[in-house]
Amino acid sequence: DIQMTQSPSTLPASVGDRVTITCRASQSISTWLAWYQQKPGKAPKLLIHKASGLESGVPSRFSGSGSGTEFTLTISSLQPDDFATYYCQQCYSYPWTFGQGTKVEIK
Amino acid sequence: EVQLVESGGGLLQPGGSLRLSCAASGFTFSSYSMNWVRQAPGKGLEWVSYITSVSSTIYYADSVKGRFTISRDNAKNSLYLQMNSLRDEDTAVYYCARDCGDYGGTFDYWGQGTLVTVSS
């Protein structure tokens, strides 16, 4: 199975900060990576597909990059609604696997 | 508007069985592959199972293989997960999720989830 490792696990940040979350795959997954946002008690929401494709309706302050084994999710200017947990997920090969999550919390 | 509504969760003892359902609306259900993804309390996300639009291909996570069965009824716009031989570690919120990936594995719409608690 492909292991996905996110860093950091927790990210204290303030409104307006530029935030970057890293996701590493245990083997190359090309650009077969998605990013999700999850708020407490809610279902995850797809933000980014194929490493850098912004889902319709997702604010442009979110961006994704990377290929192979290293990927990043960047929030250019953190907004109050962005405090949440973020997960990366590989869809290169079954079984599809998620990172352990990164909680973006108020500093 | 795409809607996915899970039902069927509950509290049961180890070794028991349960059938989850997911009612889909707002899109052509028969054209999409579907998935079940679960989340144990306070933990991360774990993909559970996948089924293609016409049920021709089915995958399971190793953790549920041989115990869980995914199925769908396109005439009823419904997805199912039959869960047998349940274990404590199956306790989780179970989400159904629509698949939008070229080859599977990208989940663009999710239901609100249904909680399954396995405890003696």
Topology, element by element:
The complex is a heterodimer of chains A (107) and B (120).
Chain A: E1 4-7, E2 10-13, E3 19-25, E4 33-38, E5 45-49, E6 53-54, E7 62-67, E8 70-75, E9 85-90, E10 97-98, E11 102-106
Parallel strand pairs in A: 2-11
Antiparallel strand pairs in A: 1-3, 3-8, 4-5, 4-9, 5-6, 7-8, 9-10, 9-11
Chain B: E1 3-7, E2 10-12, E3 18-25, E4 34-39, E5 45-51, E6 58-60, E7 68-73, E8 78-83, E9 92-99, E10 107-110, E11 114-118
Parallel strand pairs in B: 2-11
Antiparallel strand pairs in B: 1-3, 3-8, 4-5, 4-9, 5-6, 7-8, 9-10, 9-11
Observed structural traits:
heterodimer; A: 107 residues; mainly beta; seven-stranded mixed sheet; four-stranded antiparallel sheet; 0% helix; globular; B: 120 residues
Task: Please characterize this protein's 3D structure.
The complex is a heterodimer of chains A (107) and B (120). Chain A has 107 residues and is mostly beta strands. Helices cover 0% and strands 50% of the residues of chain A. In chain A, strands 2, 4, 5, 6, 9, 10 and 11 form a seven-stranded mixed beta sheet that branches. In chain A, strands 1-3-8-7 form a four-stranded antiparallel beta sheet, with no helix packed on it. In chain A, a hairpin with a 3-residue loop joins strand 5 and strand 6. The radius of gyration of chain A is 13 Å and the shape is globular. By secondary structure, chain B is mainly β. In chain B, strands 2, 4, 5, 6, 9, 10 and 11 form a seven-stranded mixed beta sheet that branches. A four-stranded antiparallel beta sheet of chain B has the order 1-3-8-7, with no helix packed on it. The model of chain B has no long low-confidence stretch (mean pLDDT 97). The termini of chain B are far apart. In chain B, 0% of the residues lie in helices and 51% in strands. Classes of the chains: A mainly beta (107), B mainly beta (120).
